[in-house]
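SUBJECT: A protein chain and its fold
Encoding: whole-number codes for local backbone shapes
RECORD BEGINS BELOW THIS LINE
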Amino acid sequence: MSSEQPRPRWSGTGAPAVGESGIQDALARLDETVYILRGRYGLGAAVGGRVHAGGEHEVIAAVPPSGPERLGSGAFLDAYGVREAYMSGAMANGIASADLVIAMARAGYLASYGAAGLLPEAVEQALGRFAAEIPGLPYACNLIHSPSEERLERTAVDLYLRHGVPCVEASAFLGLTPHIVRYRLAGLRAGGPHGVVAENKVIAKISRTEIAEQFIRPAPEAMVRALVEEGAITAEQARLAERVPLADDITVEADSGGHTDRRPLPAQLPVLMRQRDALMKELGYPTRIRVGAAGGIGTPEAAWAAFAMGADYVVTGSVNQSCVEAGTSSQVKEMLAQADLADCEMAPAADMFEMGVELQVLKRGTLFPMRARLLYELYRDHDGIDDLPAAARRRIETQIFRRPLEDVWAETVGYFERRDPDQLARAAASPKRRAALIFRWYLGMASRWAKTGEADRAVDYQIWCGPAMGSFNSWVRGTYLAAPRNRHVADVARHIMTGAAFHQRLSLLRAAGLALSPAIADYPVPQPDQALEVRP
């Protein structure tokens, strides 16, 4: 607006709200248009009323309604039947518990069950709960790539197809496997406006362009032919497979807890979106593949930043682990609630131990990262348990394992006899493989001790965590959400998304040239004075 033109004026039924708190309160009324005014009182804000040529109150900026349901992709909301473009990602070993998934579904959000690392009977029990307690409501189940235990991936898909799981969140994939392809294609049928309907939805969590491309393209022809020959899919489904991508959604995973490449989201997200756009143009899909953002999403500002960059949805992880519904111990939740930005470190991953793959964990209050790294270095540098230096073996048995290695091996045998006997067959012919299974015992038990709250093993807790946890703790300090007992997963989702919509308004005001004081430019965490809307 040029200086020669008179500014529009506002008139309404009441006096404008003045002062920083008044303006902030007005901006927090997300479902109404807000006018920023200048008058004899200084700056103020008004909701409603009308704008005209004359009057006392000069309008210097205005923002339209901008509720959290307007953020991200409306197609994401329609595809999954959710109220907002927000997802709680999977945390393995049931930390993203059945309780967490059910709470999120009832509040109108999508959540992914942390099936990775659980025995099939535990997963099946959770699927039974979903069918009984949230019929028809949205949920997903995690399918993690298991290069060392292929049987687990196959068994998980068997369960998901048998129970009609509507969506799989595929994570940590280093390449496509027949199992994720089978899940996707087994849900294809002819119909719909574009001639093919994909009943089995796939959300692929990735951090590398070469993996993203594999999920954006149709399933590989060789895998499709093999699945037809095995009788796993029909010839009709194989024909339809040429017309659909392997995934409906691509989640770009930045610096997160657990498996992560620790890449910054502002650098990573635009690259993957451009790749999606180029492949969509090449392949001519009629329906747009959505791209979401994960990693570092722990505050309203972070969520809004992701949406501002073009994300269709956001995914949280670490912050949910500290919530009441998470399937981990109260001790771990208290530790997470004390975490700061720099309290995370990389450590060897149990599921990809032999490959040297690492994941991000909490380092504050635990010796796990250091001890796990020592075990990997011993595995890497020696041919087996019998090749270990005497001093190193003594340290492992007395300080880390607290038991003889022979006892650990006996327990490991019993475990894999139930879970995956093929692992034992491979170890029988390879002392180095046997050493890997023994060392993985500690990594697996460290997760279990953390989940159950084994007090005597607190220094060995393996707690998957990213810097979003520290960011969240800083944001809620001094509010009711500072205490883990008050952190409910759907409540956290509501505040992050409502705050993101609030920060969208602030961005519009800044774009209009309005300088905002720090007191106005922060979304205050409201007190829990009203119940969340719960779906029947």
User: Anything to note?
Assistant: The first strand starts at residue 9 and ends at 11.
